[in-house]
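pinning this so it doesn't scroll away 📌
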Amino acid sequence: MAERASKKDRITVETTAETARVTLTGALGLESLRRLEDALRALPADRAVHVDLAGLERLNTATAWSLAQLQRRQAAAGQPCEITGVDDASLALLESVAQALPEPDEAPARPRGLLDRIEALGRLVAGAVVYLGELAAYLGLFIVRLGQALLHPRAFRLTSLVHHCQEVGLRAVPIVALMAFLIGVVLAFQGSMQLRQFGAEVFVVDLIAVSILRELGILLTAIIVAGRTASAFTAAIGSMKMREEIDAMRTLGIDPAAALIVPRVLALLLMLPILGLIANIAGLVGGALMSWIELGISPGMFRTRLVEGVSVNHLIVGMVKAPVFAVIIGIIGCHGGMKVGSDAESLGRMTSASVVAAIFAVIVADALFSIFFAQVGI
């Protein structure tokens, strides 16, 4: 038997082989909560518990909370917990506290059967269809607002367009040029190692030119812009939505689509082809430099082989993709910003989702372009 006592209250614990008996007497208050919790938590979990409150002057909420926690622990262990010596008011307090205890979150059940897996797949497909429908709606909204701006040039926000052109295009030139230059270097180095085995080193120029002009130049540029710009669009518009600035714009009679979406997407439409050209030039310069170092192909020979052996169709194929990639990145970024909720967690989640979706959509679009141009023979 163990006893913990003070001048005002007493907590007595008697333990046998089958039960544990707890007797509370006196005026247990909030100052005794720590001692009561220690005593109740020290009870063995492999036997029944009997709590006697007959000698307790008054049951307060703190003591009731400790007893409710004891009942929950005993129920989890499969052992009974009996409380006696309580009047109707104390019993009602115990029941109210027990009902107010928070329930632990249950882990969602994992799909077990075939029907559950089919249902989960169906929900994913339905969510993807809804997402594509929302993107199509935003694309239509952009086209309508752009048409209205062309019909009423005075309402067009030229300052906003220039600002976003600078952010999207000018500030992205260093990273895009460096990336393309290094890609050209890598292509020349790896191509020279393989073609040298067959004595066809001169064809490294064709390899570099076709790869960069047709695919890698604009594709990698779009991926960099997707990671850099889609996140910026989502974060900027999403933070405005969190601070209810978009609601304030509607209250003032300002169309959020015309003020926020049109300048951003139009800036991408103007700047992504320019960034693609810069990437092509930087990639060719990098490939020419490595070909000169590794294979001894002079810049003049490289230029001659480039002009004579590579069709301009490859450049056209690459540049045709730029406006499509720009619209995809801009619409996904703006859509993500408009879907941000009122909390910071939603902002971070939608920013990450926009970047992933933009990069994935760009790669899918590039694959579709490749199939299309292969079918038409370009």
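📌 and the second one:
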Amino acid sequence: SQVPLWKRQKKDITKEEYDEFYKAKFNDFEAPQRVMHNTVEGAVSYTSLLFIPSKTPMNYYSQDYKKGLQLYSRGVFIMDHAEDLVPEHFRFVKGLVDSQDLNLNISREMLQHDRKMKVMANKIEKRIQTELENMLKDDRDEYVTFFKNFGMQLKFGIYNSYGMLKDKLQDLLMFYSSDKKELITLKEYVEAMPEDQKEIYFASGETVEKCDLLPQVESVKSKGYDVLYMTDNVDEFCLQMMRDYDSKTFKNVTQGDLDLETEDEKKELEQKTEDNKPLLEIVKKALGDKVQDVKLSHRLKSHPVCLASGDGVSFEMEKVLNQMPDAQGVKAGRILEINPDHDLFKSLQSVYEKEPVKIDEYASILFDQALLIAGFSIDDPVEFSNKITKLMIEASK
């Protein structure tokens, strides 16, 4: 009789043998990224042979995907998917466990309450955790490959546990850095923060490129602060559950007041706001319930306008929540912010002085511009196009 692979000594098993066993046993065309082969002796003795796939399974994020490890007792197969042996946040791990301490006739219901199973599950979780931490520390490129495949699962782990797994998983997370132009950890972000920086800044969008084009990112980067780009749907929900990292709170650059101005800049903006109060009020009136407020802002540098959201739901959260089957029409508050130093604002002032009746049209165009920049669709693209065409014709006369 042939001795099962997992019962042989590790030193006698080649990488090729591990790879072929994995591909045949778990129906994968690719060799695994990592192999974890362990024999544990003690109150509960077992052998585990675990694999981290090198690619995300096609059905991984569908209901068809079944997590869990194959379970054996003294080499005799008991169960194909023992879900309780691997935690949800490490559900990507495939493999098997063979223990001599389990009864051959144990039922699935009994396994769920078996103390020995819980002991094995805890040890397996720690083994996977250690493997990932060592991979990040010793082979960064390999860890980045892993994270691109399964990093979203770690984020879901924090979100689904309402932050209870924060301490376990936070140092395994990676996000794209606007400064480094690559994925970095939160620890690396905090270590590189200037002394005067108090918060961890992030921007959300469909892609890194779209995040980088957001007007609000420009002002934060101009202060010498790095911005993390969140491109997965779960990112903001994960950060919301984490609340902070190393006592540094997370700050969305498109939400609320960034408070990056000096006292002199704040006084200057207050004066400009007071001087242009009637204009801002008429723009707000023109937009009606589309906006919570219209105000001048130092959040912008080279861009004329942007949308900021109030406290609570952010724009990206709104998009994600409204994509769900039971969407409730969640809507983030919209604040139209205008750059008082941009030539477009000077044109708006001129229109207000000479042809105030046109302010409604200008307000509509500015708001639609801001919506498009924020990644939203506009109510009437044809009307928007016609207004732009009209302005271009008038400007050429």
